[in-house]
Structure of Deoxyuridine 5'-triphosphate nucleotidohydrolase:
Amino acid sequence: MPMSSPEIPVLVKRLPHGQDLPLPAYATEGAAGMDVVSAEDVDLAPGGRHAVATGLSVAIPHGYEIQVRPRSGLALKHGVTVPNTPGTIDSDYRGELKVIMINLGAETFSIRRGDRVAQLVVAPVTRGSWVEVDELDATQRGEGGFGSTGGLAALKG
Ligand SMILES: O=c1ccn([C@H]2C[C@H](O)[C@@H](COP(=O)(O)OP(=O)(O)OP(=O)(O)O)O2)c(=O)[nH]1
Ligand SMILES: [Mg+2]
């Protein structure tokens, strides 16, 4: 028997143009994201982008967010992805949830109302607070970054 993980209840409201659409849903028992469908027809030209309507607004519990992530099949087969991935839906946002999509492929990509365009991951948020100091502790990495440990080759053991 697979263990079921706790589910976070998220309030969802179907907007007038989304009344007949299915709510975002997990495609399989172990899916991390709920597939969300488009509430509109959009033809995305090569290089084009659009904030795709979902016909939904949500109220996420405080301390959680929804991440809007691309579907890998659309990215691999068509070059269609979410440029701001993971998109952030704040717990206090009450506007329409939209999926920003970009067509990085060579062909126009047609999205039809009801098509599953992206996936939504409900995730906990940890917030930080600044502790301002004059000096930071020394580390092995120091100021090195952006490739300072080398290129693609594996590290020598
Ligand atoms: O893919 C996305 C990303 C954001 N939003 C909505 C929900 C989110 O809570 C709000 C603001 O998003 P974000 O903070 O990423 O955008 P911003 O450019 O910083 O806008 P704002 O000044 O409104 O925060 O826009 C979406 O519907 N889809
Ligand atoms: Mg913002």
In short: The chain has a mean pLDDT of 96. The domain at 32-124 is CATH 2.70.40.10 (Deoxyuridine 5'-Triphosphate Nucleotidohydrolase; Chain A). The pocket of deoxyuridine-5'-triphosphate (ligand 1) is lined by residues 68, 84, 87-90, 93, 97-98, 100 (CB under 6 Å).
